[in-house]
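Summary of Year 1 activities. Much of the first year was spent building the evaluation harness for sequence design. The harness presents a backbone, in tokenized form, and records the residue chosen at every position. We chose the following record to illustrate the format because it has been used consistently in internal testing since the harness was completed.
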């Protein structure tokens, strides 16, 4: 008998409530105008491109042959990586330049961007082109 009481006493408690009116629920009408829901499957926004440009500048500054730099825009959920391609070359004005590819992923949208950057006189890489990739 003592074993049965121990078994009953060690059982957990559970509570179930079928009245769902007592709980708060949020739906899309509860969103405020100050926070926009990111559009999935949309082309890159200007802020997406800014994050990709910063990543491109960072990875070009490293100068590594086989390196990539991840980027992500927390506002839209867009993300990707930037990878330099080929070797650096001299632009017409004598600056050191390099081409790169950047991936873009947002929702089910996946695409590639191509770009180029050149090193400024202060050593920072400035991205001067970033556009959809044409193979």
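For this record, the design step produced the sequence shown next.
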């Amino acid at each position: 008998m003592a074993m049965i009481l121990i078994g009953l006493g060690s059982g957990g408690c559970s509570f179930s409530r079928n009245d769902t009116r007592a709980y708060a629920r949020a739906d899309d009408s509860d969103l405020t105008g100050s926070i926009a829901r990111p559009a999935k499957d949309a082309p890159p926004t200007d802020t997406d491109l800014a994050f990709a440009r910063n990543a491109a500048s960072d990875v070009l500054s490293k100068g590594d042959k086989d390196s990539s730099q991840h980027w992500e825009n927390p506002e839209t959920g867009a993300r990707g990586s930037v990878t330099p391609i080929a070797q650096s070359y001299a632009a017409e004005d004598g600056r050191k330049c390099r081409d790169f590819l950047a991936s873009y992923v947002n929702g089910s949208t996946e695409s590639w961007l191509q770009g180029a950057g050149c090193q400024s006189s202060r050593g920072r890489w400035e991205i001067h082109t970033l556009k959809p990739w044409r193979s």
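The first strand starts at residue 69 and ends at 72. Quantitative recovery figures across the full test set are reported in Table 2.
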